[in-house]
Amino acid sequence: MPSRISTTGEHPRPPHTTKRDESLFRKIPSVDLLLSASSFQELTKQYPREAVVTALRSDLQALRHRVRNRRLPESEFEHTLEAVPARVRAALKSRFSPSLRRVINATGVVLHTNLGRAPLSPAVFDRTREAGSGYSNLEFDLAKNERGKRDVHAEHFLKNLLRCEAALVVNNCAAAVLLALNSLAEGGEVIVSRGELVEIGGSFRVPDIMRKSGAVLREVGTTNRTRLSDYQRAINARTKLILQVHRSNFKIVGFSEQPALEELARLAHKKRLPILEDLGSGCLVDLREAGICGEPTVQQSLKAGVDVITFSGDKLLGGPQAGLIAGRRKYLHLLRTNPLYRALRVDKLTLGALEATLHSYLRQDERNSIPALKMIFESPEHIEARAQQLMEQVRQQSGENSQLEFEIKKGVSVIGGGSTPGQEIATVLIVLNSPAHSARSIESVLRNQSVPILARIEGNKVLLDLRTVFEGDEENIVRALIDLSRPLETKTSSQ
Ligand SMILES: *Cc1c(COP(=O)(O)O)cnc(C)c1O
Predict the structure, then answer these.
(1) Whose CA is nearest to atom 5 of ligand 1?
(2) CB 443 within 8 Å of CB 472
(3) pTM for this one?
(4) Which residues of the chain have pLDDT under 50?
(5) Does the Cβ of 352 fall within 6 Å of ligand 1?
(6) Cα-to-centroid distance, 135 and ligand 1 (Å)
(7) Measuring from atom 2 of ligand 1, which residue has the nearest CA?
(8) Is the CB of 117 under 6 A from ligand 1?
(9) CA-wise closest residue to 306 among 245, 360, 349, 255
(10) Separation of CA 108 and ligand 1 centre (Å)
(11) Dist. CA 342–CA 460, nearest whole Å
């Protein structure tokens, strides 16, 4: 079989290169000549020369390929050749753009897992800058002038806030559950109600994480009803732990029953077993004023007698991604000294961000300074006033024959992110309608802005919920809506 690899370093031309191809190829300037043109000179100032050369070579190769495969009519050749600099510029721009970008969340889902859950406040970044841009006492005890431990930092605030004996921080709540199960129950049995064998988004399933932790799942009760006696009967010599999992993202309603946490804790302690609660959402404040009922707080669970509790940093707590663990010192000591902790621990930026978040709670300023809580507690009246103002701005600037109609409608926001299932907060929505565009195309124009705007579609209408939109981002929405309101032929490209 003849080798397809050319010894000259050039790709061999397929045998079917024609005279026409040859004459078109001759019109393509050399890489060196193109690089000396002013458009490319400019690009080499902006990007490394090597990257420009690579992008240019690959564009020219694609061009030759299209010629040879008859995918480029001769009439379009000149035009395509002229567009080489523009294509190379676009390719470089895309190659050098970060993949993680900011977006505007107009969906009204406060803790949107796909959109990064809790947004963080500027104060949090002041602390992470302080902790991360230079050196810090991350693992150094300044008072004793000796090696220290990183787990003391957020623990200090958590003990204060939760009135618990000890606290520990790992990468996320899934990691917290894995570490707790492995440290407290490896090789033994863990009793869980069948109604709590949940799956949290992103394939976190209680039975799977249990298997990975090396503990054996002992299911009790039924999907809808589990009684204290079910737990009692399941306890045996191999039992190491009782686990309760918060049903963060669904509800069991109707004919259902489960023992109160206090009762379960009392049973565990009578049998000299620890009780672990995976709370997930990690709420520290009373949400009733926002119209959310029945969301348990971390403090309530600890008060009920739970020995170890796990919850997320970026759900209702409103901080960075982290898994928080709080409870009895003797159990947390087992977690801290487990080799898995070393693999699951957090970095200094997370600890800085978490301390800044917890500091808001200590100051009792959380409703003002934690963006997620501020959004949750924002009143529908205030959201309506913002919506009216935004629509007025668009109306004034889009003039006579606007292609966009607005309407204001009462609706609901949700907290999301695997918390407060089935609960909604009253809000006011902007409903967009256009004779010129379908809901899908309005949604797509918004999503393709330079700062993407993500909206909700319901029944062929695009809805914007300003609850989750920062006031500073409203002008981006105004600009996009003005663009959408123009008659099609005069529309500028959406920036
Ligand atoms: C969200 C959630 C988790 C997973 O938390 P992450 O921080 O996303 O890892 C675990 N358990 C419960 C009950 C949850 O609600």
Answers:
(1) 173
(2) no
(3) 0.89
(4) 1-3, 5-7, 9, 493-495
(5) no
(6) 32
(7) 280
(8) no
(9) 245
(10) 21
(11) 50
